[in-house]
Specification:
- The chain has helices spanning about 10-20, 45-55, 70-75, 80-90, 125-130, 150-160, 195-205, 245-260, 295-305, 325-335, and strands at about 5, 25-30, 35-40, 60-65, 95-100, 115-120, 135, 165-170, 180, 190, 210, 240, 265-270, 285-290, 310-315.
- The chain is α/β, with parallel strands linked by helices.
- Strands 1-8-2-3-7-4-6-5-9-10-11 form an eleven-stranded mixed beta sheet, sandwiched between helices. A four-stranded parallel beta sheet has the order 12-15-13-14, sandwiched between helices.
- Strand 10 (about 190), helix 7 and strand 11 form a beta-alpha-beta unit.
- Helix 1 crosses helix 5 and helix 9 (about 295-305) runs parallel beside helix 10.
- Bound molecules: threonylcarbamoyladenylate (TXA) and magnesium ion.
- Threonylcarbamoyladenylate binds near residues 95, 114, 191 and 227.
- The site of threonylcarbamoyladenylate has 28 residues, from strand 5, strand 6 and strand 10.
């Protein structure tokens, strides 16, 4: 298949909406990561997404909507908490899960009785959704298991020849995927993102965190959060998440780096601005300031892609709250929970 690579101007957005309406699949930018979209009402088109990504069939997709009210036709009924949250956070990096209506395809939800909805905060994505006039099922536009794409060139590297088109809208503002919140029972964060637990709790009161956020899945939790059980975000190198306070971390990383190199490994450090001078001549990719976890989030996936060609990646960890929790969730999954 020839993949069109299109700058995201008005004409090309309309062209991509037509491709989606006629059953094709298109990668498009959002504020979080690039998505790979299909008409959520067309089972054949949705199946093409699973095929192109090599995605396990039991992992449900998020439906992207151009305005909050589209939930009326997609949920079996709309809970009050949905409108409270949508009025503050839509458009934005928040995905809300509730019981699905009969009109939602079982292929998109992988047979779950629930459906995930999100209105992205990106003008290109919103124009595409408005023009397509259907909900657009879209996972991240990467091959399953690789880091989510934050630039059109990442999508191209994974997907060229497998999809109909890529809309290039530049670098994603946030760089990690949306917060996924289930509204069933006590609202529960299944995947942390830029919209934090504290921000959600300020609007709807009690919010809990799924246990699987910082741990491998225990038995019985698979049904709640199917995506969490797969290895994610991995470059070809082994990633280690290195713990300690600002200064301990730098000492530990330098020590392990030198040992790994002595035994024939090629190492790279995912470092902070604060510690970068300390690492001296050792290879490093700076993620940002330790005081701004959002910078670490924005750079992580792109940096993991730059680690191909190394055998060993040593990454600084952050405190697990606010945006730091989202960062640690992705880092631990990229490392397969290997820590130092
Ligand atoms: O920021 C994002 O959310 C990006 C952009 C493209 O919108 N999308 C994204 O999609 O990250 P994906 O498919 O890579 O991740 C969706 C996650 C998966 O972990 C999936 O298991 C979970 O959301 N999910 C989707 N529908 C669900 C449902 N009905 N119940 C439980 N989890 C669900
Ligand atoms: Mg994904």
């Amino acid at each position: 298949m020839k993949t069109l690579y299109l700058p995201a101007n008005k004409e090309n957005i309309l062209r991509c909406a037509d491709i989606i309406k006629s059953g094709g699949i298109v990668a498009f930018p959002t504020e979080t990561v690039y998505g790979l979209g299909a008409n959520a009402k067309d089972d054949n088109a949705i199946k093409k997404i699973f095929e192109a990504k090599g995605r396990p069939q039991d992992n449900p997709l998020i439906l992207h909507i151009p305005y909050p009210e589209m939930a009326e036709e997609l949920y079996s009924s709309v809970p009050e908490s949905y409108y409270k949250l949508a009025s503050v956070f839509f458009p934005g990096a928040l995905t809300l899960i509730y019981y699905k209506s009969d009109s939602v395809s079982d292929v998109a939800t992988a047979g779950q009785s629930t459906v995930a909805l999100r209105m992205p905060d990106n003008e290109i994505a919103l124009e595409l959704l408005r023009a397509a006039q259907v909900p657009v099922a879209a996972p991240s536009a990467n091959i399953s298991g690789t880091p989510s794409p934050t630039k059109a060139e990442h999508v191209y590297n994974d997907m060229n020849g497998r999809i109909d088109a890529i809309l290039d809208g530049g670098e994603c503002k946030i760089g990690i995927e949306s917060t996924v919140l289930s509204l069933i029972g006590t609202p529960t964060i299944l995947r942390p993102g830029a919209v934090t637990k504290e921000m959600l709790a300020a609007v709807i009161g009690e919010v809990q965190l799924s246990k699987s956020i910082l741990q491998p899945l225990g038995s019985g939790e698979e049904a709640l959060s199917p995506g969490m059980k797969y290895k994610h975000y991995s470059p070809n190198a082994q990633v280690y998440a290195v713990y300690g306070n600002e200064h301990e971390i730098a000492n530990k990383i330098a020590y392990h780096y030198d040992n790994f190199e002595k035994s024939g490994n090629r190492c790279v450090i995912l470092s902070s601005e604060e510690n970068s001078r300390f690492y001296g001549e050792r290879k490093q990719i700076i993620l940002g300031s330790r005081k701004k976890p959002e910078e670490f989030c924005k750079r992580l996936f792109s940096a993991l892609r730059e680690c191909d060609g190394y055998t060993t990646v040593l990454c600084e960890t952050l405190q697990e709250h606010g945006a730091g929790l989202a960062f640690m969730n992705r880092l631990l999954r990229a490392s397969g929970f290997k820590t130092l």
